[in-house]
Amino acid sequence: MDISLRRLEDSDLPVFWQQLTDPELQRMAAVTRKYHYDRGHFDQHWARVRSDPSVILRTVLADGVVAGHVAVFGPPQEREVTYVIGRAHWGRGIATTVLAELIELEPVRPLHADAAADNAGSIRVLQKCGFVVTGKSRCFARARDEEIDLVHLTLS
Predict the structure, then answer these.
(1) What are phi and psi of 6, to 5 degrees?
(2) 17-65 pLDDT tens trace
(3) Dihedrals φ, ψ of 86, to 5°?
(4) Are 131 and 155 in contact (CB under 8 A)?
(5) Contact by Cβ (8 Å): 53, 2
(6) Cβ(19)–Cβ(25) under 8 Å?
(7) Could you write out the three-class secondary structure of 16-43?
(8) Which of 30, 37, 66, 75 is most exposed, with the fewest beta carbons within 10 Å of its own?
(9) DSSP 130
(10) Three-class SS of residue 13?
(11) pLDDT, tens digit, for every residue of 101-155?
């Protein structure tokens, strides 16, 4: 399988919308935002993200098909990584491959990430890329309509 990153194109956004509104993906991610549920908020979110020069944002391709996106965002001391891989592409090593490529694009350390404590797949992806668990907390997960345990990870 050919896995690669490229700059975001307008034609990627409908795929991202489809992925972000997938109830199973939302449940796994747990911590969702308004833009996961409302197309107007989605469009505003992506316009803001795309106009922010501090954000490193890439579309994930798997065999030429849009499989998701990855990004680094936030101020220098609080840079975070995020990634979304559509459910049709889960379990194929795509997230690990593209996260490793993404963190090579960002020289700033530390990098941070959060994952639902029961999202073993995401935690494993982050650990394979060098992140270590540095803390835990609880937060409200809109996708689950309940408080959940959250794991904080750091790449130094």
Answers:
(1) -145, 165
(2) 999 999 999 999 999 999 999 999 999 999 999 999 999 999 999 999 9
(3) -60, 145
(4) yes
(5) no
(6) yes
(7) HHHHHCCHHHHHHHCCCCHHHCCHHHHH
(8) 75
(9) T
(10) helix
(11) 999 999 999 999 999 999 999 999 999 999 999 999 999 999 999 999 999 999 9
